[in-house]
Specification:
It is a single-pass type I membrane protein. By secondary structure, this protein is of the alpha+beta class. Among the domains are: 54 residues; 212 residues, 7 Propeller (Methylamine Dehydrogenase, Chain H); 111 residues, Immunoglobulins (Immunoglobulin-like), CATH 2.60.40. 17% of the residues lie in helices and 29% in strands. The protein is built from 13 helices and 45 strands. The chain binds 2-acetamido-2-deoxy-beta-D-glucopyranose (8 copies). One 2-acetamido-2-deoxy-beta-D-glucopyranose (NAG) binds next to loops.
Length: 867
Amino acid sequence: MDRGRMGARLALLWSWLCISALFGLPFTPTLDMDVTPRTTVLFNGLLGSRWFNSSSQNYSTLLLEDQAGVLYVGARGAIFALVTRDIGAAGSSRTINWEASAGQKLQCLNKGRDNQTECFNHIRFLQRFNETHLYVCGTHAFRPMCTYIDVDHFTLSSGFEDGREKCPYDPTNGYTGLFVDGEMYTASQYDFRSSPDIRRNYPYPTVKTEEGPIRWLLEANFVGSALVRDSVNSSVGDDDKIYFFFTERSQEQSPFFSQTRVARVARVCKGDWGGLRTLQKKWTSFLKARLVCSIPDYEFHLNVLRSVFLVEAQPAQSSIFYGVFGLEWTNVKTSAICRYSVEDVQKTFDGPFMESQESKWIEYTGKVPEPRPGSCITDAFRARGINSSRDLPDEVLNFARRHPLMSRHVRPQEERPLLFKRNVGYTQIAVRRVTALDGRPYHVLFIGTDEGWLHRAVEVGGRVHIIEELQLFEKTQPVDRLVISPLQRSIYIGSPTGVLQLPLSTCSRYTSCFDCIFARDPFCAWNGSACADIESQPGRSGLIQDILKGNRGCKNTKDGPTVFRVRSVMAGDDVLLQCELRSNLAAPRWTFNGRELQGYGLDSGFRVGTDGLLLIGARAEQSGHYACFAVENGVHVLAANYTVRVRTETVQPGESAPPPFPATERPLPSPPAPLEPVPLPQTFRNMETVYISLVAILGGLCLVLSVVLLYMSFSARTARRGKRGQQGPGRNERKRSSHMELKTISSRCNGERAERDERMAGATTVDGLLQIVPGEGQASPSKDSLPPAPPLPAPPPLPSSEYANGLSATLPSVLRKMNGNSYVLLRQADSDTTSPLYHSFTEELNRILEKRKHTQLVTSQPDESSV
Ligand SMILES: *[C@@H]1O[C@H](CO)[C@@H](O)[C@H](O)[C@H]1NC(C)=O
Ligand SMILES: *[C@@H]1O[C@H](CO)[C@@H](O)[C@H](O)[C@H]1NC(C)=O
Ligand SMILES: *[C@@H]1O[C@H](CO)[C@@H](O)[C@H](O)[C@H]1NC(C)=O
Ligand SMILES: *[C@@H]1O[C@H](CO)[C@@H](O)[C@H](O)[C@H]1NC(C)=O
Ligand SMILES: *[C@@H]1O[C@H](CO)[C@@H](O)[C@H](O)[C@H]1NC(C)=O
Ligand SMILES: *[C@@H]1O[C@H](CO)[C@@H](O)[C@H](O)[C@H]1NC(C)=O
Ligand SMILES: *[C@@H]1O[C@H](CO)[C@@H](O)[C@H](O)[C@H]1NC(C)=O
Ligand SMILES: *[C@@H]1O[C@H](CO)[C@@H](O)[C@H](O)[C@H]1NC(C)=O
């Protein structure tokens, strides 16, 4: 016992040291950026979705022709033309089957390729060629081919072209390509033997990147490309530019030595035809720079680019682009979104060059030849008699060849990510500019994850608010492509098994004025009776919306879907007053007879959770009015109102409604002694147990937080250690609101939900002491009200369903302070469960449900419910 106590004290001391050390660190910035999606919509709660699939796989190349109402889809061995209004409409799709021949597949197999995945014709390029034809390229079982598609008849033209220099062999190789004014640009490492290359394939002669003496590209993995029309209304006679986005192996010394790869932006001028003698058929205007997306003060760099989206503006220089970044360690899932301006990229390209000296890259400080190398041909060049890249002097071209890399980095606007999310692997981004009711333009971000979720978010003042997270597919699979149709007000999502069409917003999901404005969805406004798409409304007057703050405009805080109930219970019973909040960002507040209910301590007889208020052993003085308010953006909205009557006298059989069971069966066996409404521990032994448990929990907490800390600091420094992030705090756990408290009882924990939890939580076992299970705000997609006194099935055992009963009221606040995201159910090590102070959550739930059944039977007045 003594040794145990010593150990406990030491552990307590260590815990506090550890916790205070943690608080000493400036953890807030990252937490601010790691926002919780306001609502969670599961697959079966999707509204207005359409689905297209066929026997093909890998629907990863999408070409939208919005005006024509056609979505072209390149898949494995097939090309489809779908009707954008409803891609799933029966009989409306047209198909071209284009698979590699059996002989070709055999050759592919003989090359040592996988005949289950690689030896197929994966469509990688699909673009408009001219008024009547599309141009399409496929990997064709490791022998790329290209051809034309006659759009009217939707057939392949008979002539096939060699695609070896236009399309990669490998279906998974990074690749980007586009047609600009009839010119075809592509970038990829086409073959595993060849070097990566950015080229103009067409018209001839082909222009490429240079391989010597300095490699312009090193193991580059391309994710995107974009045209910026700088020539339009240019006062200097500027040229259009094509930007390429990729991740490559870093050549220059990086201060972040753990990382071997860097994100880059490169550009070429559209009018570049290469040099005459030097840089013949090579870009004279190729420049590249590093794209930085890192968390200030942490030296935490997200160095792998996964997707980019250009938001065009007038003039072209004011365009901006969004990048999705991740880490090169595949076992650490972390994502960030950074936003850049094209103007900043241009400034970087006008800045100092880097130079390689004895295989070290340093800033070049010598004289730069005139006219400036890497420039597009402008009026200033023409005034000097240089009409095209072929007229550039050798001196300039030689400099350009040796100095492709800029010294300055392209930094994100705001100098930090807009969004940083741990445990989420973003794969794709698409952005839509929307003018809200306040007349300001907002960017709505659609971000897909590797597990098939879509985050819909709005950017407000350099911060991102995630309106909702949507589960797109029944089975987990990555989002491969996102395309927005402004005309159809839809987003199309390409995935391995099919294409999904979703409306850009689903305002009808919000059922009250406050729900509508809390969502801060620029597409939606409250019209007095419903939350509706602004576009669908005849006029804009009378509409209510508040994107900036999300709390102004609505009047009646009681107009929501409020539950009114009367509940009669027997003294000594446990009662759950349900109050489930739809929003993950809302916090529950309870009032009792109009006064805020405070102190959910051991002896108060109350416990509060995300889903309700628990009265433990109801006493007569607890009769009265209970109201649950959802607090969001500083507004208290009434969510539930209960009138509780605690009866002290025993109800005589026959006095009220005759019971369906013989009276003798009614009083259910009272719970055994250990299940007494948690008494304050009186004895020293009990004190000891509480003490040790507290220590255990704090210790465990500290362990977890230490791991978080280690992950944050070490992953930024060493790649090797970063690999250990695997054991980090619940890689798969779902982030939840910072306002979460301990979950008490969920009467709605059906199998599906438990299953989802399990899947989301992963089996996160932190050895020995405690287990952390993700907090769960609201998971039910339906906005249904609470059923009147629901007849509840016995809940399945929850994963890790025990927690320190007596400590529940004090722990969450500690947890909350430590991490903006909640972790709510704490589980004691097995040995602790034998303690009389701890009993199973399931057991407790069962007991309460039993009692509630009992309560219903003796209630003379049935529950009255209204919504
Ligand atoms: C298409 O999707 C539906 C719904 O997910 C599924 O039932 C069906 O089997 C799929 N068809 C094919 C050919 O994969
Ligand atoms: C793939 O190749 C293996 C032999 O390596 C063969 O047994 C198998 O049937 C092939 N699968 C398909 C789908 O062609
Ligand atoms: C478009 O290109 C195809 C393939 O080169 C050609 O056959 C067709 O005539 C062209 N159509 C027009 C309208 O130029
Ligand atoms: C170019 O300038 C003209 C006249 O100043 C203007 O009408 C036009 O909209 C501008 N075009 C673009 C694309 O900015
Ligand atoms: C450039 O074009 C101008 C006018 O078109 C012409 O006078 C001049 O000779 C050209 N210069 C060269 C080097 O071709
Ligand atoms: C194609 O889809 C399958 C699953 O259906 C997936 O395993 C594979 O990685 C996908 N291939 C590509 C190139 O996306
Ligand atoms: C509000 O919008 C809904 C849905 O568009 C519509 O049915 C309803 O009539 C509108 N109400 C008012 C008051 O405009
Ligand atoms: C709850 O309902 C009761 C009875 O209808 C009412 O007296 C009380 O004011 C309501 N409480 C709130 C907060 O609206």
